[in-house]
Amino acid sequence: xxxxxxxxxxxxxxxxPVPLYDELRETGGGVHAFPPLGHFAFRYEDVARMGRDNxxxxxxxxxxxxxxxxxxxDPVQAAFVAVSxxxxxxxxxxxxxxxxxxxxxxxxxxxxxRWRPIVETRVAALLDRFxxxxxxxxxxxxxxxxxxxxxxxVLGVPEEEQSEFRRWSQALAATFDPGIQGPARTxxxxxxxxxxxxxxxxxxxxxxxxxxxxxxxxxxxxxPEDELLGSLALLLTAGNDTxxxxxxxxxxxxxxxxxxxAAAADPAAIPxxxxxxxxxxxxxxxxxxxxxxxVTLGGVDxxxxxxxxxxxxxxxxxxxxxxxxxxxxxxxxxxxxxxxLPGHHHCIGAPLARLExxxxxxxxxxxxxxxTPGDEPPVRRVANKVARGWxxxxxxxxxxxxxxx
Length: 405
Hints:
- The chain is built from 17 helices and twelve strands.
- It has 405 residues and is of the alpha+beta class.
- It has a five-stranded mixed sheet with strand order 1-2-8-5-3, sandwiched between helices. The chain has a three-stranded antiparallel sheet with strand order 4-12-9.
- A hairpin with a 3-residue loop joins strand 1 and strand 2.
- It is globular and about 60 Å long.
- The protein starts with a helix and ends in a 9-residue tail after the last strand.
């Protein structure tokens, strides 16, 4: 196998990267160099270490990562990266701490419970669109619609102005994808910049007339304009695309894992079920860090300034951390998966993502307990090489529960 073929499988071209994950995790010390992208770490202990230790593994890598690739002669691209580079995910303490503290009050467990009525209302309204026996593309007509509506509501975006948010968030997510280059990258950056400019206008309105929403909270914080806009754009995209992937990946597991479908019949089991969905097929399979000095990881020497990819999808299946890791265990406890990463960059939206997953799967299966795979359109994975999800999953909404045996 050539290096390009290997990277193609590792970075998203392979519909099932798990065999490769297993092979590379168990080869040598589980850390491998794949120039020119850098080193890749496949084991739980190493991925967890990189998440926790920002003194050795820095997140200040925007200009060394695919996110920083742009044409500086294009004023739109230059304006976009000026804001995108200020997202708090690309910073270490103390800058990261200052930016994150401005948002933390809105994402505590208590504060997130405030969003429950929004989630319940949005999910109920979208489920009302479907009738028993109806076929639809779950990703386009449900999973792609629910999270963007919820995060837009949380941010305080008027419903009549939310239609572009899915396209914008997909465009911003595409700027992190090393496989998107040339005209496709230019188009993604231009679309993502439309979102930045829209958010700039919303922030100006909230500063004049604050409302009970997250944008008003952040607009009142003492953050420079680019940091504020970068944070809002990141929240919109992360709060949308990752949840879309959770829903698609979770539904696929319900269709293919009998233990998942059986457990889902009990609403009380849904929270633990969602955690196992997050572990076995996480919405984000890859993240990266930059070494601040020479370091040895998995027995491999990595020089200062080296890029190291955290292969979360492989670490979550490490037999050193999980008993029988390839098995879907809906009652797995404890379940210390790395999907949201530990340390300073633990996903700030994790409580909201869990809330959405629990409510959505509970209400979906209450309304349509017999939901089954449909015929059209064909099942397709998304092309994004960092965040693995589904572009389409045809379903048939059925009231009668399927037999599980």
